[in-house]
Design goal:
- It is built from 26 helices and 18 strands.
- With 627 residues, the protein is α+β, with helices and mostly antiparallel strands.
- It folds into 4 domains: 63 residues; 159 residues, no CATH class; 88 residues, no CATH class; 167 residues, no CATH class.
- The strands form 5 sheets. Strands 2, 3, 4, 5, 6, 7, 8, 9 and 10 form a 9-stranded antiparallel sheet that branches. A 3-stranded mixed sheet has the order 1-14-11.
Amino acid sequence: MQISIEIYALAAAALGLLAAAALLARRLPARLRAVLVVGAAAIIVVLVARTQLRSDLDRLQELRADHPLQRAEDGYASSSECRACHTQQFESWRASFHRTMTQRPSVTSVKAEFAGSLSLDGNRFTLSRDGDRYLVDMPRPAWWNGAAPGGRVQRPVELVTGSHNYQVYWLSSGNSAFLAQLPFVWLVHEGRWAPRRSVFIAPPGELGSDEYSRWNAVCIRCHTTDGHPNLDLKPPEVARSTASEFGIACEACHGPGAAHAGAMRNPLRRYAAHLGMRGESGMTNPRKLTSERASQICAQCHSVNVPTNEEYEHYLRSGFRYRPGDDLARTRRIVAENGKNLDPGYFWPDGMVRVTGREFHGLRASPCFQGGDFSCLSCHALHKPDTDPRPLHEWRNAQLRHFDERNGQCLQCHESLRKTEALEAHTHHRADSSGAECVNCHMPNTVYGLGKATRSHQITNPDVARDMAAGRPNACNLCHLDRTLDWTASSMASWYGTRRPTLDADQRKIAATLLYLYKGDAGQRALAVHSMGWAPARAVAGEDWLLPYLLDAVGDRYEAMGIVAYRALRQFRAARQLTPDFLALPPEARRAAVEKAIGPVAGGKLSEAELHRLRATRNERPILLKE
């Protein structure tokens, strides 16, 4: 696209040059006239040939590429074109984790230690670095079609995904631009490698390792700007994947900017824009859209959505046609929260989202959004304003708007709760306590992803009966870890007249957190373990009695539980010095290693007989959480 524009521009320039030469030639002798015209024509031929050569070289590079290419197309210009005029916005975006979602490997982008060897199922993976080249020597994988001396191949890292929690490394497969994943993930906070299969909630032995072609077909959708899979799925399958920019850049939210950037190179246009004398800029400003259209910009990635058949065919070839400000529903169907046959990998049985990265569903189902004025931007700031006193590294963690007062995001609408008496009457908690923070009750940590629990974006009231029916931990017991469901149900009924569910003997006498941990499925167990390490919950319920149960979680057969449990244990005084070395062990050996590291652990609220009985009733249904 960019080359075509250059050719047209050169053609126009060529005609202008010939016309100027012809006018000038009238005043010159015949011999000089001929030299001038021939010279002008030669310059034009050279310029056009140079442009065509660049076009041919680009096409040749695409045909021969063994990795995805970054190339601005479709009217996109790249974030570098925005910097000169939008410096403050550019710098805050540059500091964000959106920018670093996909990067080329370099000293600044790669966080892992690329040295030494890793072992998986008896196979050795040797890592090395040569400048900005990161290499993996490994056993010949199933996707490798070439010769493999000694049964091993060496492949370069071509792309890096993530920089906040995990970092994943994509290798050139040797088959066009198809990528395969190194079967290890770098845990950023722990500073260590872990097998990919041990960082996701998945049934033991079920999760694949190399993820061949997934980046080209799936990850490119949201981890790049204007991604083009360019897949030919007829044998032999070929990928010529490109993106206008790696990572989630300016144009992912504001739309293609080449025309705008070109127009703003004119100083008169810039001055008119400064004075507010120009019309539409051609760019999308999410804050000037309706709440639904603004939130759909986020929903293109932060939702479970399915493109129409026609759109999917277009996507495989040339990417999605949606542009910020469009109606997303025209080309993609957002999976309904109240639909039948909901995928348990994404949703709780009542349709509430249970995995991170799909927040639009919760927003859309919330009464606040249905009122018409509430959007993602009501709470989030994708650019840090000058009025925000926080440093960039603090703002970027969740890109939340800054409010000077507690509960500020909710007080934008619920002004009556600004008064201490009103807040305490509403919450039945002291105004300065965690129980009086709106989000702890109305957006509890019932969503899982990246080795931790995060807040539901579906704004609801605490309801024991509803959450029990869905198998979801309720807000009250995620904080009051030592309390039973009976206690919570009685409190809700007394304070708000909420319906009391029918409870069995365990629900009346055993702390709900322990029921989630010992009787729940893997997803419920992960949320319970996270809550045990959550500071507000430990402040309310105490902590020493929780240690024996966290030790049980360390050895859970779902390997990812070890990471969640480690992060929780590190919050306890007795385990502050615990290192993550035990994560390299199989689940059955982890508990002994942790006990050896932190010493004997006593306490707990359950007898051995009760523990044995609860373990026997654990929900062992296979569960794969699709974060």
